[in-house]
């Protein structure tokens, strides 16, 4: 308790709402008798300019250092009185607003009960307010550096946009070269643009920009700090380095599912779409006169229940490319459902059909069977036997090359990365953003963003759109002068903390974490990220955490004041 | 100054912990609509997750006959999971209250949306009726005030101890977890373990509370705490080792122990 609190109690009659139901004069004399109360005043409406003026005058005249307003709800009026306190050069948190209007005057049957209840509420508030401490909002000057994890299309696009806004981007890539999935594609959706040319242009732009820096064969091994002031440790062949950053963009991409054991996959004449892309780059072998593509090769199955979204587009794109380059080639596409996503690509299926690409629809329960001819046979080496639902007949397709449209799966490293950064994964292992509608591409951790295939399988166009969106969000965050948080946040008494980690597992917002540093292993609160619920404080086994503005002492004093 | 205001004779004696976003808001709305509510006193917190079991026990120690907690509806917590933690804390405290002879229904929690003033009124009325029917704390089931207070004090000590706080805090995480063989942790097994530990901790706390004001012999402590002498002796050995209890002296050949 403050040694010598000078409490002012202001009883608002609420133009009769309170005054007619509660004996305000009795309430005032009761308040005046309470410990620490120096001044008690009444007014018709403290929320009106005249009332606020009276209040401010009293604060100055009596040298009050904290006040209680008995009036209406703090949910609506606290902010008004906080402002008044600031204007009276008092800390705005030295205040308690008691809702005697809604919780006493309006809900009790008679004047006596209403007055008694209001009196008890006032006592509780006076006890609390005499234990309040002046508070300041948490604030951080954001670091202008951004760590982008992954140098694939999403990561590079994000880095380009972030650097373009005057922030610095450090791109951390686990392989030796930038490009990611782009390196494995010959042409790029939408439309047959050459990936190589696109990538060279993008990298040229990035290399010319002094705000972009690359680290290859590197990974993030530790992550701590709070929004605007993170500290990462990045390990690359030259060793570990500390990287301060204001925000982190995760764009580490996905992986290709290898359809081992499906449709006779052998990597030679039964290959994946990406293998086909590299064949197309070299120029397709003229002996491959007949090519068949099998969709959903592994996707939408028990193991990978989701649709990988981009394989239909890729198959149609590659089929059209083959047909345009060498019209005499037979191209077949065997699908379960086909969708090429968006008005721009939708017509591709029709174009493909017009150009002579043949479509067959197979049933999930009756997938195509691949048969191999004996060596030395004059026939094409492979035959697909399929029950086609479109013509309702059994088809036998002889082909030289079978291409399996395999889905994208979460990268093996994304689980590890998620653990380092403390990010949630969905049931498949993709990174999942928390508020899909309110804050897409955001995590609970305010300074960490996600874009690209690590999120879920995306077409290149969607990757770029996400990356640009994320870059804009990063800029919104980091181009501010200061990031402001709550005035009430959790504070850890490090002498009591045993680093058990219970608070960390309790905090949904990851605002309190056990961190090892020079001073030892202790729980540390991220002031800017703390929302002030206090769940960690109530659960701490060592009672080492206190919640500012709702401390144990304050709450206990309220309970004691309420005692009978 | 009116003397009767000092007495605060409000019935029933209930303290409500209300979260700012739901319980408190629903109360505001009930007031705006001029619903008639029992005169229950309240403490506003930002989230029901802030409410420590110690504070709930303090309310009973301060003479309240019932304590209620009202937070956001499940899944609608302003802070995502505060009310789930609060619910588990209430769960364990209710079990503990039962153990010391306080009716568990004296502690009540409910999850009511900010717009559900009628539900709020219903909850307040039901709980008031419940507390009225249960009667005054202690008196109703014939426990003397002093005895009840020392039990509650021991309970507070128990819930201040790291063992109970850790276990009850880990509860939410543990209940969804599987053991090393992949079979899920059974709720009943976990509950039994926690209650065993609780009973043990409570024994120690009550011995400490019994030896707080004066040095007492094993038999005296056993009488106060209603434990067997063997049990008290065993625990005294442990508590001495933990440095929580001292041998004060030997009076007429009987060793007397006092809390440090």
Give an overview in words.
The complex is a heterodimer of chains A (564) and B (260). By secondary structure, chain A is α/β, with parallel strands linked by helices. Helix content of chain A is 31%, strand content 24%. Chain A is built from 15 helices and 30 strands. A 5-stranded parallel sheet of chain A has the order 10-7-6-14-25, with helices on one face. In chain A, a hairpin with a 2-residue loop joins strand 11 and strand 12. In chain A, helix 5 (111-129) packs antiparallel against helix 15 (552-562) and helix 6 packs parallel to helix 12. The mean pLDDT of chain A is 93. By secondary structure, chain B is an alpha/beta fold. In chain B, 52% of the residues lie in helices and 13% in strands. Chain B has helices at 3-7, 23-32, 53-61, 82-99, 117-134, 145-160, 162-175, 187-210, 218-225, 229-241, and strands at 14-19, 41-45, 66-71, 107-111, 245-251, 254-259. Chain B has a 4-stranded parallel sheet with strand order 2-1-3-4, with helices on both faces. Chain B has a two-stranded antiparallel sheet with strand order 5-6. In chain B, helix 4 packs across helix 7 (162-175), helix 7 (162-175) packs antiparallel against helix 8 (187-210) and helix 9 (218-225) crosses helix 10. Chain B is globular. The mean pLDDT of chain B is 91.
